Amino acid sequence: MTAVDDILLTQAALDGELDAADMLDFEHRLAGNASLAAEYGRLKTLRDVMRRELVKPVAPQALRDRIARMAAPSPSITPRAPRAVPPWRAMAASAVLAAGLGSATTWLTLRASLQETTLAGTLIADHKRGLLSGQPFDIASSDRHTVKPWFATRFALAPKVLDFAAQGFPLAGGRIDVIGGAPTPVLIYRHNEHYISLTALPERAAPSQPAFNIEGYSVEVWRDGGTEYWAISDADPAALSKFRQLFEAASKTAPDKSD
Amino acid sequence: MIRSPRRILATRNIKIGSLLTQPSANERFASVVMPHLDDAYALARWLTGNGADAEDIVQEACLRALRGLDQYSGGNARAWILAITRNTAFTWMARNRPKALLVTEDIEALAPADGAPTPEEALIEKADAAAIERAIGALPPPFKVTLVLRDINGLSYREIAEITGVPLGTIMSRLARARGLLMAALGSQQNK
Fold it and tell me: Where are the domains of chain B?
């Protein structure tokens, strides 16, 4: 039987833990010691067999995604938000974009002045970001039978997708924004040359608010069956109010079909 | 009305109430922890023997890493996250599989019994993945951790000592004993 120290030495040689001088010594001893050579052979075979047979497990993508989301105050699932951005940039996801088009400082100033009404501020910023990027939606389609399934594959509860093309508010598409750390569906409607961002949020305790106006953007908030809808637009307030009435009326008469 | 970005940040962080305690926490997490997720998963997978438990452990370990990011002072990120994963795995096993952690013998003295036949190299050579996994699965946890960190994760003795908080000499002897047990299991006729 090989002495314990010899086993440790043999093992260290195979694990690449010996420096050149020790390795040289070891090789000399190996050449003149049959039992050491046999131990070396067995250990080397074990190592080779393990390398041959064992595959290092790889973390499943779903786990990877869950952990990335967990670490990100503003997760990176929206296509336009870069991966793993620092929080202030994640928060101001389009500061990058804004910097390209104008000045990030201007944009941050806008954000700062919106702090008092944080949710509205966030939604307006997202709406504005969509306009700045020239691509206000992740999926562009006027067909609600395209938009609805697109959301359905991404959210457990897809928002109601209604179309008001005949009334002057055609559906333009949908996108995913990140509100308070959670991916949130947003529908985009067109009204003349304006866009309306309609965000569907889980209903909160606060009562629904009347229409208001921030930074020149009209905001309408209403509730419908456990969902809180926020409509944001630079269209004039009367038009947005009409949009709300249309949506509420259509939602009542045509309960959402699972299309 | 103009506020500095830092002021906005402070407001935002309070609102989110997130675990992130400093501006760059998310970025640091992405650069410190995320690259070593496979290593963490591999360790947890081998320690528990199944993927679902390994996912729970890795997620829990990452949460701890996120909370403890302030304490990470640079240096070997992989060793750091593997140490957290190892600790999380042992906590998890103590809670869910206390029996697996029971070691009645003096494990440092554990070795193939006297008079046991010398393992045959030719038999070891023929071992397949299932047999190796069984043999590793049967190792006492401290041996298993050492062996997995070395032969699956490919860490150096020094890194393993750092992760497990065990002296280098003990790492070497645990590794030798773990391999001795594997060779005994794989290299004798009775196990075929």
Answer: 22-101, 107-191
| pLDDT at residue A46, as a whole number | 95
Residue of chain B with shortest Cα separation from A45: B125
Of B59, B182, B186, the CB nearest to A66: B59
β-sheet bridge partners, residue A186: A175, A199
What is the DSSP code (8-state) at residue A79?
Answer: T
Of B59, B152, B175, the CB nearest to A11: B175
CA dihedral B135, B136, B140, B146 (to 10 degrees): 150
Backbone phi, psi, residue A113, to 5°: -70, -10
Measure the CA angle with vertex A96, ends B27 and A234; round to 5°: 125
- Whether B38 contacts chain A with CB within 8 A: yes
DSSP state of A169: B
Chain B residues lying within 8 Å of A7, measured CB to CB: 176, 180
Question: In the predicted model, what is the mean pLDDT of chain A?
Answer: 75
Model pLDDT for residues B6-18, shown as the tens digit of each residue: 444 343 343 344 4
The reported pTM is 0.54
Contact A109 B2 (CB under 8 A): yes
- Architecture, CATH, for domain B107-191: Orthogonal Bundle (1.10)
Backbone dihedral angles phi then psi of residue A4, each to the nearest 5 degrees: -55, -45
Contact A56 B1 (CB under 8 A): no
Q: Which structure tokens are listed for A129?
A: 């970001």
Measure B80 CA to nearest chain A CA, in Å.
17
Round to whole Å and give the CA distance between A120 and A215.
Answer: 11
- The pairs formed by B108-113 with CB atoms below 8 angstroms and a separation of 24 or more are B108/B170, B108/B173, B108/B174, B108/B177, B110/B140, B110/B143, B110/B177, B110/B181, B111/B177, B111/B180, B111/B181, B112/B180, B112/B181, B112/B184
Q: Chain B contacts of A96, Cβ < 8 Å?
A: none
Task: State the nearest Cα–Cα gap between A186 and chain B, in angstroms.
Answer: 21
Q: Which fold has domain B22-101?
A: Rna Polymerase Sigma Factor; Chain: A (1.10.1740)
**ipTM greater than 0.90:** no
Nearest CA to CA, how far is A190 from chain B (Å)?
A: 31
**pLDDT at residue A25 greater than cutoff 60:** yes
Q: Which of A161-165, B2-6, B112-116 has the highest mean pLDDT?
A: A161-165
Q: Which residues of B touch A38 (CB under 8 A)?
A: 118, 121
Inter-chain contacts counted by CB atoms under 8 A, chains A and B? 162
The per-residue pLDDT for range B105-134, each reduced to its tens digit, is 555 555 555 556 788 889 999 999 999 999
